[in-house]
Write a structure and sequence with these properties.
Its EC number is 4.2.1.113. Keywords: Lyase, Magnesium, Metal-binding. GO terms for molecular function: metal ion binding; O-succinylbenzoate synthase activity; racemase and epimerase activity. It holds the Pfam family MR_MLE_C. The chain has about 375 residues and is α/β, with parallel strands linked by helices. It has 2 domains: about 5-115 and about 355-370, Enolase-like, N-terminal domain (Enolase-like, domain 1); about 125-345, TIM Barrel, CATH 3.20.20. The chain has 12 helices and 14 strands. The protein has a 7-stranded parallel sheet with strand order 5-6-7-8-9-10-11. The chain has a 4-stranded antiparallel sheet with strand order 3-2-1-14, with helices on both faces. β6, α5 (about 170-180) and β7 (about 185-190) form a beta-alpha-beta unit.
């Protein structure tokens, strides 16, 4: 297979509810959509969901655009491949830039599935027709405001609630939510906000009393030893996110017992091919996985839904309905969660129709290889 044309569309969508993590608050998102076409007119879409600011990782939207135009586009145009898993090799010499690579690799998978007339989920080896969805809730101005958000989403049927925590916003909000919802599937995520000190470890150990499904990424990404030390003193499983960029990191996590759950983010791991490899390695090791999100638009969200249908994804994933984040998505029919479940599309390719006209009218940057040469 050969890709003949690539178009990049940078789009900004406002959030229906601002979202705060341990590092910052955001009210809108700017992502890059990758549109790849072959000579027969088949098209695949991917999404570069890199953050605007360098808080979650070192990549940003601005940098991803530059890397895409200067390095990824020419390599993808020059690649000859039979299966999308081969595309990674075209980018092998480019270090890092996992978010940017992920958008191109997802487009290749969607294109191949379209040309093969099979759903993306089937192309990935998925076995489920629907997946359980969880939601991720940010830090709110007050505990009452947080409880209102939790109540809204549990009432909507979501199967799991993740609470963002940070130093100064941890024990009290978790205690309040657990008291109000004693049977809810609840976990917390620090995005690496805590220092690896005895005092921080002692505080985090207090979370053991709340019956959490997991404590996600309490310490900085490369500090496997601090995670292992905390895991050895608490019963609650630690889940790693930012720490695991590739399968070698997963092997380190397992060897050190630095985590007992894995958050597989397609963007963080550099694309669907590496996400598949992590899923398979985790299954072999008996590590439960779930699909994390970066507040993707409909294109990236559709890929996450397809991935989440694989057998190893035994925990609710961040594949909540588009309406939780956006009043208007980039796909014509949004991702919908009904009673906390999302149906896996059975149409060929991505499974959702991309709204080309709306994107063309609302994008804030555009690149087309057909006119750039």
């Amino acid at each position: 297979m050969h890709i003949s044309t690539i178009r990049l569309h940078q789009v900004t969508l406002p959030l229906v509810h601002s979202f705060q993590t341990s590092s910052h608050r955001k009210s809108s998102l700017t992502h890059i959509l990758v549109e790849a076409s072959d000579k027969d007119g088949n098209t695949g879409w991917g999404e570069i969901a890199s953050p605007t600011d360098p808080f979650f990782c070192g990549e940003t939207t601005h940098g991803a655009w530059d890397i895409s135009v200067r390095h990824l586009v020419p390599r993808m145009l020059g690649a000859q491949w039979e299966h999308p898993s081969e595309i990674d090799a075209a980018f092998a010499k480019i270090r890092g830039n996992e978010f940017a690579k992920a958008g191109f690799i997802a487009a290749a998978w969607a294109l191949w599935a379209t040309a093969s007339e099979i759903p993306l989920a089937a192309a990935l080896g998925a076995t489920r027709s629907e997946v359980a969805a969880g939601v991720s809730l940010g830090i709110e101005p007050t505990i009452d405001a947080l409880l209102a958000q939790v109540d809204r989403h549990l009432s909507d049927g979501y199967r799991r609630v993740k609470l963002k925590i940070a130093p100064g916003w941890d024990i009290a909000p978790v205690r309040a939510v657990r008291a109000a919802y004693p049977d809810a599937d609840l976990h917390v995520d620090a995005n690496g906000a805590y220092p690896s000190t005895p005092e921080a470890a002692a505080l985090l150990a207090q979370l053991d009393e709340f019956g959490l499904t997991m404590i996600e990424q309490p310490f900085s990404p490369r500090d496997f030893l601090a995670h292992a030390a905390l895991q050895s003193r608490i019963a609650t499983p630690i889940c790693l996110d930012e720490s695991v960029v590739d399968v070698a990191d997963l092997a380190t996590m397992i060897h050190l017992d630095a985590g007992r759950v894995l958050n597989i983010k397609v963007s963080r791991m550099g694309g669907l091919t590496q996400a598949l490899a992590a899923h398979d390695a985790a299954q072999r090791a008996g590590i439960p996985v779930w699909c994390g999100g970066m507040h993707e638009f409909g294109v990236g969200r559709a890929a996450n839904v397809a991935l989440s249908a694989l057998p190893g994804f035994t925990l609710p994933s961040d594949v909540s309905g588009s309406d939780k984040y956006f009043a208007r998505d980039v796909i014509t029919a949004p991702v919908v969660a009904v009673s906390g479940m999302v149906t896996v599309p059975q149409a060929a390719g991505l499974g959702f129709e991309v709204d080309r006209e709306w994107i063309a009218a609302n994008r804030n940057a555009f690149f087309d290889t057909a006119t750039a040469r």
